[in-house]
Amino acid sequence: MIKILLDKISNFKGNSICLVNQDTYLLYNTINTLKKNININDILEILPKDGNIKISDIRDMQEFLMYKPNFSDYKLVIIHEIDKMNIQAANAALKILEEPPSFAIIIGTTTRWYHLLPTIRSRLYKFLLPNPNLIDKIKNEYLEYYIYLSFSIKTDFECAYYILENPDASKIILDTIKRFPEMNTSTLIKYLMNENKDIENKFFKYEAFFELIKRFEKLNLIEIQNIIDKILSYKNKINNKLQLLKLFSKLFLALYHDAFIFGLTSYWKEFYSLNMVKFFGLADFELNFQKIYENIQWCEKISKSSISNFNFDLTIQTMFLRFIQAFFKNKEE
Length: 333
Known about the structure:
about 325 residues; alpha/beta; Rossmann fold; about 10% strand
């Protein structure tokens, strides 16, 4: 993941992102590697002073971004420990974080994502950096878990730590997920739409989604619509619809991420879901990368939203329709 970020960072021009990890050293090391590709005159770094990032720092950033880069393809603003912005700084930064100039990338770092104000979080694309030591430990000690549960391990540290701390209980989860291909669609949807917050349910939700997606290749549009309708039938049972829409956005974003890995690079080991490698390798589809890119932008808006102003039915329907258009053009013919 870090290698892909380094290789593709220029694709984020005109956006604000936030690198998140509990390891401060990993964050600084990643930033230092990113800086190597940019002329020092086109970089602005903001660090907390006396424990805070102040409004004067934000004004320096605004002034720095008034002019195009002189020596590089883009300007890079780095806000270290962005969670330490005081209220005045955070309010002053809202507009520039939401709409950076097209020639600039703003990167924040934090070990405490949920200490950021909601208004700041909603304007940042969260980039959760994997902890190589944690992931490598699972890969070395529990390879089968890593292969079947890679999405959970790479995107949700709570799941990763659970595997290391509860390998026997994790084996039960793994055995259940290995039976997903034999389960009917209704059972998979039940797992996907379960709002139970137990850690076990996280694993089931994630992998149920990917198992459903695998089946789309063999289905016609009417059969796919039947699956979508079954998902929508849970609408009145859902307490937090915005949270569920964000979960679907996260899952589709992972799918689009893996599509780019499959189509544009040879780093298959960087798939979020290693369970999907066979799907991408054998499925009969022609990826439309322009639509995939547009879908990423669309899903990111939902992921960043802090206001539940989405029509639940329409949004879910549109998510799946966008996916089909990007992956299965032949189904529309």
